[in-house]
DNA sequence: GTAGGGTTAG
């Protein structure tokens, strides 16, 4: 009984067990030892040993070795092929996906010869690889789909699930749903694929229906994957109630303790704008990982609480959890939002240290951050760093120039992009159109309009708004209106753009009519709308209506007046000569707006030659430490007129002390796509002589018509 | 007794 000899395992059996064990532990060192032993014993051509070896290399991400081991197999069976195919599809990426398709074609081609045919395992690998194909993924997917049916794999749950997932990733949820509905058998993976497919397309309603279907069918598959995918479908404000229910379900089922589920809850609340709930859930998470922190930080940044986002980031740094590129994108966006240049630069430093520098999302966020913080040159450095910027990055850089008023550079960069043959998106077009508006570059604007048509963009928001605004701001109000009326839908920005075009070109009444039309169509005005309305009133001298609108803004629409609104009111009152009323109005507003508002009143006083009030406004500006040279010049002129020599001296001394100089006036005009700029006093233009002669001719003409220029003492002083 | 599908942060 005691000394029964144990049967010694056959060498192939022993290799087999060792290979499985080694695969489980992903032990590459041991794999190489085993491989050499297998070669020595001459079993490397036997599928029963070589297949697990191919798989072992695959799980260690060693595709070259896997391929070598595969090619050594003399009579490859289906498993040999599938191991290598899935090795590539699991690693993913365009390159590996192409390899999957090559291997698959070879397998099919040699099938009859070897009597080895693709099966369910093969098609799962193929369908997983399809979405990553750079060239015609849909064609490959459909072809694969029909082959799978031809090879009798249509009923396999794995094949079905991977098909659902494939169609979803290609954006064809309807095709995915067709496959889903026809599947004879489904499991939790199938449900998850379908639900997350809807979630990715932001079709929360469909996702709920599928989830309810699953619960109704009595599927037992409720697991952490299902919960996370459902939660991601509810990450929109309109689904917050459903999201809360799933949160409860997570608590009841105990699945909330899975960190991925907790993270999905945090994300869901963040995207719904319930940052309190997001933060509470986050606090209770056990085993917070980098995704948890990123979810919360991004949530704060996206809901506009960027200070809080930065605060959480600094807490994260103390918690010893390493930030990922996702975290840093969120933090950079927070920095852009509040113009936190110093923090942004710190993040730049740490992302270099962490090796995220060349990540495209990181680059885009960095370019955006530097541009929004006003450091366009740094933004450009970040842009130039990548040889192949994608369209989002091109667009951020172009948008960065526009935001900083460097519109010529924006157009130049857009030209470079066109030469590189890069297809713009709607935001690119909107940015370059905005650049044209600011430059009043009608000709270039028209060319871009032609591109909009050529590229097949519609007049949807934001292109429609940008285009109508471009025409309006360039003075082509009819074309602006034509585009505006042709837009399929209009949001408050579209209305604002058209109104501002009208009002800037002296069509104040039409702007106000448009405002009435906007209200009657049920679009809620925002603060910009009221800036437009008030400035229209100011241009038209409509004091009474100005007051009505100013009061309507806070009383009816609960919009807190900003400095722009106060400025419009002061401008309106000053232009109308109601200078004392303007002064009293300024004194009733929050003091931090003084610098802007007193300056407006000062100009008003100049026009009406109210020297006492002008001096009062000027003194206020000096007290507040104004850096506007024109304020000091005007004030000293006023004192000159009033004969107060001592005060003139005092103002001039202050001006010198602050190092302020009179800024020369300048203007420009675009002719035949070229911009001609003029600065007061310069004689740089090649046709300077002719231009001056023409100005003299025109001056004489209008003087003869009876025009008398006003040369009061103030403007005389200004000219000196 | 070898091989396959799904979730969370931009």
UniProtKB/TrEMBL annotation:
Gene3D superfamilies: Tetratricopeptide repeat domain. Transmembrane segments: none annotated. Keywords: Repeat. One of its GO terms (molecular function) is RNA binding. The keyword Transmembrane helix does not apply. It comes from Rhododendron simsii. The keyword Repeat applies. Coiled coil: none annotated. This is Pentatricopeptide repeat-containing protein. Signal peptide: none annotated. PPR repeats lie at residues 156-190, 289-323, 390-424, 491-525. The lineage of its organism: Eukaryota, Viridiplantae, Streptophyta, Embryophyta, Tracheophyta. InterPro entries: E_motif, PPR_At4g14850-like_plant, PPR_rpt, TPR-like_helical_dom_sf. It comes from the Eukaryota. One of its GO terms (biological process) is plant organ development.
């Amino acid at each position: 009984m005691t000394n029964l000899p144990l049967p010694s395992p056959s060498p192939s059996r022993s290799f087999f067990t060792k290979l499985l064990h080694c695969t489980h532990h992903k032990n590459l060192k041991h794999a190489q030892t085993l491989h050499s032993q297998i070669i020595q014993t001459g079993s490397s051509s036997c599928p029963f040993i070589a297949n697990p070896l191919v798989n072992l290399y695959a799980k260690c991400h060693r595709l070259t070795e896997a391929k070598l081991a595969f090619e050594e197999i003399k009579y490859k069976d289906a498993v040999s092929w599938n191991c290598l195919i899935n090795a590539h599809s699991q690693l993913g990426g365009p390159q590996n996906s192409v390899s999957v398709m090559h291997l698959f074609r070879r397998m099919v081609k040699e099938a009859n010869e070897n009597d080895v045919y693709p099966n369910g395992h093969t098609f799962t690998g193929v369908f997983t690889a399809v979405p990553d194909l750079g060239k015609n993924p849909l064609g490959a997917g459909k072809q694969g789909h029909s082959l799978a049916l031809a090879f009798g794999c249509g009923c396999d749950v794995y094949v079905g699930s991977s098909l659902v997932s494939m169609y979803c990733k290609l954006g064809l949820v309807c095709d995915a749903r067709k496959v889903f509905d026809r599947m004879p058998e489904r499991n939790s993976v199938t449900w998850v694929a379908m639900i997350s497919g809807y979630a990715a397309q932001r079709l929360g309603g469909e996702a709920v229906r599928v989830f309810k279907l699953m619960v109704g069918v009595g599927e037992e598959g409720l697991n952490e994957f299902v919960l996370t995918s459902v939660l991601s479908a509810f990450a929109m404000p309109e689904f917050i109630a459903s999201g809360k229910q799933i949160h409860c379900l997570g608590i009841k089922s105990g699945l909330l303790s899975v960190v991925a589920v907790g993270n999905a809850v945090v994300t869901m609340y963040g995207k719904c704008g319930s940052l309190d709930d997001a933060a509470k859930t986050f606090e209770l998470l056990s085993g917070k990982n980098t995704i948890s922190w990123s979810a919360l930080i991004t949530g704060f940044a996206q809901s506009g609480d960027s200070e809080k986002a930065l605060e959480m980031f600094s807490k994260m740094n103390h918690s010893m959890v390493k930030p990922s590129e996702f975290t840093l994108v969120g933090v950079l966006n927070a920095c852009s939002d509040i113009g936190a240049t110093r923090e942004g630069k710190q993040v730049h430093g740490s992302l270099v240290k962490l090796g995220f520098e060349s990540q495209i999302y990181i680059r885009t966020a960095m370019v955006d951050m530097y541009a929004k913080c006003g450091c366009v040159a740094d933004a450009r450095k970040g842009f130039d760093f990548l040889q192949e910027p994608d369209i989002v990055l091109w667009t951020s850089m172009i948008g960065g120039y526009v935001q900083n008023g460097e519109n010529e550079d924006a157009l130049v960069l857009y030209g470079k992009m066109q030469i590189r043959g890069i297809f713009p998106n709607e935001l690119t077009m909107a940015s370059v159109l905005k650049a044209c508006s600011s430059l009043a570059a009608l000709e270039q604007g028209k060319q871009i309009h032609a591109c909009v048509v050529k590229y097949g963009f519609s007049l949807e928001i934001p292109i429609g708004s940008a285009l109508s605004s471009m025409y309006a701001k360039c003075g082509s109000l009819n074309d602006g209106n034509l585009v505006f009326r042709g837009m399929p839908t209009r949001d408050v920005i579209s209305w604002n753009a058209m109104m501002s075009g009208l009002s800037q070109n002296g069509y104040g009444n039409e702007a106000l009519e448009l405002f009435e039309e906007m209200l009657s169509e049920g679009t809620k005005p925002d603060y910009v709308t009221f800036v437009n309305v008030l400035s229209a009133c100011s241009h038209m001298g409509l004091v009474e209506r100005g007051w009505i609108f100013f009061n309507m803004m806070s009383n009816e629409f609960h919009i807190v007046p900003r400095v722009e609104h106060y400025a419009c009111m002061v401008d309106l009152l000053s232009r109308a000569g109601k200078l004392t009323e303007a002064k009293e109005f300024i004194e009733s507003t929050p003091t931090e707006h003084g610098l802007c508002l007193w300056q407006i009143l000062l100009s008003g006083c100049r026009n009406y030659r109210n020297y006492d009030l002008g001096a009062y406004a000027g003194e206020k500006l000096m007290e507040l430490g104004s850096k506007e040279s024109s304020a000091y010049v005007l004030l000293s002129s006023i004192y000159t007129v009033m004969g107060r020599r001592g005060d003139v001296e005092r103002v001039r001394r202050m001006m010198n002390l602050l190092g302020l100089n009179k800024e020369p006036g300048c203007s420009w005009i675009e002719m035949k796509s070229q911009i001609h700029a003029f600065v007061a006093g310069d004689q740089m233009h090649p046709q300077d002589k002719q231009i001056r002669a023409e100005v003299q001719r025109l001056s004489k003409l209008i003087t003869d018509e009876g025009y008398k220029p006003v040369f009061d003492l103030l403007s005389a002083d200004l000219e000196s």
